[in-house]
Each structure stands twice: as C-alpha cells, then as structure tokens.
Amino acid sequence: MSKEYELIELPNGIRVIHKQVTHTKIANIGLMLDIGSRDELPEEQGLAHFMEHMVFKGTKKRNSFHIIDRLESLGGELNAYTTKEKICFYATLLDIHLEKAVDLLTDIVFNSTFLEKQIVKERKVILEEMSMYKDTPEDAIQDDFDEQLFPNHQLGKNILGTEKTVQSFTQKDFKQFLDRNLNTEKIILSSVGNYPASKIKKLADKYLKPIPHKNHTPQRNWFEGYEPTTVAVDKAISQAHFAMGMPSLSIKDKNRIPFFFVVNLLGGPSMNARLNLSLREKHGLVYGVDASYAPYLEVGSFAVYFATDPKNLKKSQRIVLKEIENLKNKPLGSLQLQKAKNQIKGQMALSEENKSAIMLMMAKSQLDLNKIPDLDSVFKKIDVITSKDIQELATTYLPLDQMSSLAYLPK
User: Fold this and answer.
1) Which candidate in 86, 129, 264, 281 could, as Cys together with 268 as Cys, close a disulfide (CB 3.0–4.6 Å)?
2) What pLDDT does 216 receive?
3) In the chain, where the domains are located
4) Class of domain 230-410
5) What secondary structure letter does DSSP report for 248?
6) What is the C-alpha to C-alpha distance for residues 12 and 213, in angstroms, rounded to an integer?
7) What Å distances lie between residue 286 and 133, 239, 264, 303, 339, CA to CA?
8) Domain 6-207 belongs to what topology?
9) What number of other Cβ atoms are within 10 A of residue 181's Cβ?
C-alpha cells in the first residue's frame, strides 16, 4: 500500500480506502463489489446489470424519488456501473454532505427491496436500453466480438442480457443472486477528498460496520480452449465495422503494464498512435481507430476496432496487420522510444487529476491486486522497457495467425 493511501479493515471484512487531497471541496466516494456479469448463471444473463438499476428503485426506508433526490437536491451526483467482474455505486458531492452519501450508498447496496412493481417498470427501461444499444454498431460489435473470443463462457456474454432473460427476472432472482455472491471481504468503500481518514472511518463504523459478515465465494469458471474464428455479418448499416483481436494477459500477469504500453503505442487515444497515423492521417480511410486491452482475473482481451467505407475495408485490414508486424520487425529508435514513454506517463499523470477516476481505480486495484500501485512504481516499470522488449511482447502476444475477426457489412 502506497503511503498516499490509508487502508482500514472493518470486523466484517469490508475495507475502506481513503486518499486525502487538498484544494478541493468535493468528495468522491463509492462502494465497489467484486461481483459482475461473469458470476451469473446461464439463465441469469443480464441480472447483475438489472440489479444495478433496481437498487435505485427502493429500499426498506426510501422510495425511488427519495433515493434520486437525496444527493441531486444538494448538487451532487449518484451513479453506478456494471462490468464483467465488478458492480460499483458511487457519488460526487460537496464534502460537507459526505455522511449523506455514505448513508445512501450503504442503504441501496444492502437494503434494496426489489419490489415486483418496480421490476416490471424498470424492465421496460432496460429493454429500451438494449434496443438503443443494438442500433449503435460501434458498441454492439465490441460485445459481439467478446462473445466470439470467449464462446460459451460468461466473459463472452453481453452484460445487458437477452430479451428472454430480462423478461424473466423476479424479486426472488435478485435476492438469490446477491445471497449467492455477496462477500463482505470483497467490498471496498473508496474515498477521495480533503478530509482525514479518521472521518471516513467514523462514517464506515456507523453505516458499514453493522453489516453482517458474509463470505460467499462462488467459483468463477476459468476460460480456456480459445480457437481463432473469422465472422462476417450483414447489417442494415452504411459503413463497414471491423474488430480483430484475441484473448490476452490477465490482470496479475507480470507483463501487463509493458503490454499496455505496446497497445497504447499501436492504437492508444492519442492522435499520433500508429494506427491513427496510418489509417486516418496518411490514407484518410477512417474517422477513428483504436486498440484496446482489457485484463480480467485469469485472461484478458486485445482488440482493434474501426469503421470505414465498405470498399476500403480490405485495404484498412492490411494496414492494421502491417502496423502490428512493424512492432515485431522494426525496432524503435531511442528517441521514438523515449517519446512513447513520455506520452504514456503524461496520459497517466493527467488521469490522476480526475478524482473520481482515482477513487474507482483504488477500489478496483485493491480488489484485484490487494494493493494500489503508486504512479512512481508504474513509471519505473515503463522506464525499463526496451525496444527489444516491445518486439518480443508484440511477437509473443500479437500472433496474427491467432487473431479472430468480426465484420459488420452493409446489406
């Protein structure tokens, strides 16, 4: 644990992490649970995300209006998200109202009632969300590609679920899902603000300490047996959308940070990423392109995504393959390498200015790694990367003959 953070563990196993920052009157606070869509049974697909919606619809002492109005009326924000391995509920507000946020977050996470009439109402909202999502090919293709990379496995399932499963959920399903998966030793209260750890500990003692200890640890099925596939689907769209990639490194792999550096060099968010320079700036074939790397518990996923005019699809694909091969065959000069290191370190330093992002990062790192790497230690891992390391990483973890691809083609 970095000295920048303070860690407190409650008797029930819930951990509290706090980072005190000066020159702000804003508190960023969240409750993160080590539960996600990968913990659903086949008939429960979409239940974790549905549950994220439902906790805002009523608790034993608050109705939906009181939940929504509690922080919004103070100028604060209450939000949530679900991933394949996490569910998080978080708030941003003036720090003088910190206790109200801790009270509300605790209430919705541990005291939600999941009333049937609210389930019926929210089901319509989620079905609309699914329809909207399917109408956005740049979003839909990435989920469909996950299913292609991780077939017949929870990591490949769409977080939103299917129309059939979403239509089937009852109050009993939500309660059974929580009862089966809730582990207080896998819950983090994360806080960033200009107040001491003693203040957040006092609030945690008041609101979280009374929560009964639960140690349910369902076995997550390990993914194995990947085989590369090539899929093309006709869609009622005007552009061709294309994704390619393969399973990759896990969250605990020693090469995770160096590989992230390679992916950032290839297709990170900067305009001077190699794929953007080739596909957009040099050839004018795409509006945007990105390479992404998402690490999970035992595996990760690497993917490249872009959209282009159908007549330019094959040329764009060839350019992507060429840029990946260049990483393997053309070593970076010392100046190029240093510029790439300075760039990724600058990106990371800028993200440290986002207090909400820091709060979420602390919680996730503590759950996944049981520690929070400080920026200096990450920088040191980046500083020792050599040009030869980049070539070896690209050769080992980006073999073209193991890449899968998915294309959405206009009808």
Assistant:
1) 264
2) 82
3) 6-207, 230-410
4) alpha beta
5) E
6) 4
7) 22, 10, 18, 17, 25
8) Cytochrome Bc1 Complex; Chain A, domain 1 (3.30.830)
9) 20
pLDDT digits (tens, 9 = 90+) for 312-351: 999 999 999 999 999 999 999 999 999 999 999 999 999 8
DSSP codes of every residue in 137-190: HHHHHHHHHHHHHSTTSGGGS-TT--HHHHHH--HHHHHHHHHHH-BGGGEEEE
Q: Rounded to an integer, what distance in angstroms lies between the CA atom of residue 39 and that of residue 56?
A: 21
The C-alpha atoms of residue 268 and residue 265 are separated, in whole angstroms, by 6
Work out the burial of residue 246: count CB atoms within 10 Å of its CB; fewer than 13 is exposed, 13-18 middle, 19 or more buried: buried
Give the start-end residues of each E strand in 273-402: 286-295, 300-308
How large is the average pLDDT for residues 208-235?
Answer: 93
Please determine, for residue 1, whether its predicted confidence score (pLDDT) is greater than 70: no
Output the 3-class SS for 96-129.
HHHHHHHHHHHHHHHCECCCHHHHHHHHHHHHHH
Q: Which among 319, 305, 332 is positioned nearest to 394, based on CA atoms? A: 332
Which residues, including other chains, have CB under 8 Å from residue 61's CB and lie 6 or more apart?
107, 111
d(CA 225, CA 160): 25
Q: Under DSSP, is residue 91 helix (H, G, I), strand (E, B) or coil?
A: strand
C-alpha to C-alpha distance for 208 and 202, rounded to whole angstroms: 10
Summarize pLDDT for 339-388 with one digit per residue, the tens.
999 999 999 999 888 999 999 999 999 999 999 988 999 999 999 999 99
* pTM score over 0.70: yes
How many Å apart are CA 345 and CA 360, to the nearest integer? 19
Separate counts of helices (H) and strands (E) for the chain: 15, 11
Percentage helix, strand, coil, to 5, in the chain?
50, 20, 30
Q: Confidence band (pLDDT; 50, 70, 90) for 4?
A: confident
Q: How confident is the model at residue 3 (pLDDT cuts 50, 70, 90)?
A: low
CA distance 274 to 277: 5
How many Å apart are CA 206 and CA 299, to the nearest integer? 38
- Distances 225 to 152, 153, 222, 249, 297 between C-alpha atoms, Å: 10, 10, 10, 15, 16
Local structure of 9: helix, strand or coil: strand
Question: Taking a C-beta distance cutoff of 8 angstroms, is the pair 87, 36 a contact?
Answer: yes
